Amino acid sequence: MSPMLRTWLLLLVALIAPAVAGANPIRIKDLVEFDGVRGNDLVGYGLVVGLDGSGDGLRNAPFTEEIMSNILERLGVNVTGEQFRPKNVAAVFVTATLPPFARSGSMIDVTVSAIGDAKSLLGGTLIMTPLNAADGEIYAVAQGTVISGGAKAEGDAAQVTFGVPTAGVIPAGARIEREVDFDLSSLDVLRLALREPDFTTAGRIETAINRAFGRQVAVMLDSGTVRLDIIATRMASPAHALGRIENILVEPERKARVVVDQRSGTIVMGEDVRISRVAVSQGNLTLRIEEAPVAVQPNPFSDGDTVVVPRTRAAIEEEAGINLAEVPDGTSLSEVVAGLNALGVAPRDMIDILKAIKAAGALHAEFIVR
C-alpha cells in the first residue's frame, strides 16, 4: 500500500463519527410565504440627465431624443423641428418592487439601467418617471440622483472599466402614489407556502402551530402548503394570528443536495449527503510534444545548401493522483472531501471524482452542476 493511499484511508477513518448533528430551529417566517403577503414589480421608462458627456449617441438611440422632446413639450418648451443632440442624456429603464401593505407617501428604492449606448450614468439625475405594475396602472413616481457602482476611464489608446457604470440605484428614489387593494382582515383562511416544499417540514409546522394554540388550527394540505384557520385561532384579526405564529421555531428537513460550480471550482453540500461503498482511483496523464528543428550548414566553399533537420521531443508524464482506494459504506461526503483536500487534490479534479461517484450510483443526493 502506497504512503499516499495509507494517509487517505487513515484520515477517512479518523473523520467518521457516529453522531449526526440535527438542524438548527428556524422561525416559520423564514420558511414560508404567507398567502397574499407579497410584493409587486414595477417598471418605468425615463431619462437620466446631467451626465458628463457619457450619455446616449442620439443617432444610435432615437428613442432618447423622442422622450426628451416629449418632456420639454410638457414643460412648455417647443422643440418641434429643432436639431439638438446633447451628450449628457441617457434613456433608462427604472425598476422597483412595491412592498406588501405599502401606503401612499412611503418611499422605496429603485434601480436604473441604461438601454441605449450610454457609457456611464455616474452623477446623473433621473427625471420624474412614473412606474407601472402589470395591470398598467401607475403606483409610484421615481426621481433623484443615480448612485452608480462602477467607474470608467479612457484615453486615446486604452480604457479601463470597474464594475458596471451603466446601472445604478436611487435609495428611497420613488414615492408611492397608489396602494394595492388587499383586505387581509377579511380572510377566514390563510395558506402558508413553504419556500422549500417538504412533507416532513410541513408536518412539523402544522404540529408546532397547533401546539402553540393548544388546538387544531393548522392542517397540512401538501408538501408545500399549510392551511391556517383564522377563526379557530380566536385572535382579533389575521394580522394578530400571523404575528403570533411567525416566530415559532421549527426544525426544517432538507433534501440531500450537492451543488458544484465548474467555473469557480466551488462545491457546496448538505450534511445529509451519504456515499455507499465505492472504490476510487484518479490520476492525470499528460502528453507533451515539442518541435525543435535544427539548421545544418554546408561545409565552407562547398556547393551544398542549408538544410533544416526536424527534431521532435515526445514525452508522457503521469502526475501524482489517488491510487485505488475504498470508501467505507455510509461515509458522508464532507468526510470524503476533507480527505481529498488533505491530499492536495485540485477542486476541478474533486468535481470530476464526485461526478464519477454519482454516475456509479454511490452518491445518494441530488447532484447539481452549474
UniProtKB/TrEMBL annotation:
Q: Which gene encodes it?
A: flgI
Q: Cite the InterPro entries for this sequence.
A: Flag_FlgI (IPR001782)
Q: What does this protein do?
A: Assembles around the rod to form the L-ring and probably protects the motor/basal body from shearing forces during rotation.
Q: Which family does it belong to?
A: Belongs to the FlgI family.
Q: Which UniProt keywords apply?
A: Bacterial flagellum, Cell projection, Cilium, Flagellum, Periplasm, Signal
GO annotation, cellular component aspect: bacterial-type flagellum basal body, distal rod, P ring; outer membrane-bounded periplasmic space
Where can this protein be found? Bacterial flagellum basal body
**Oligomer and partners:** The basal body constitutes a major portion of the flagellar organelle and consists of four rings (L,P,S, and M) mounted on a central rod.
What is an example of a GO molecular function annotated in this UniProt entry? structural molecule activity
**Does the keyword field hold Signal?**
yes
| Name of the featured protein | Flagellar P-ring protein
Q: Return the PANTHER family for the record.
A: FLAGELLAR P-RING PERIPLASMIC PROTEIN FLGI (PTHR30381), FLAGELLAR P-RING PROTEIN (PTHR30381:SF0)
Any Gene Ontology biological process: bacterial-type flagellum-dependent cell motility
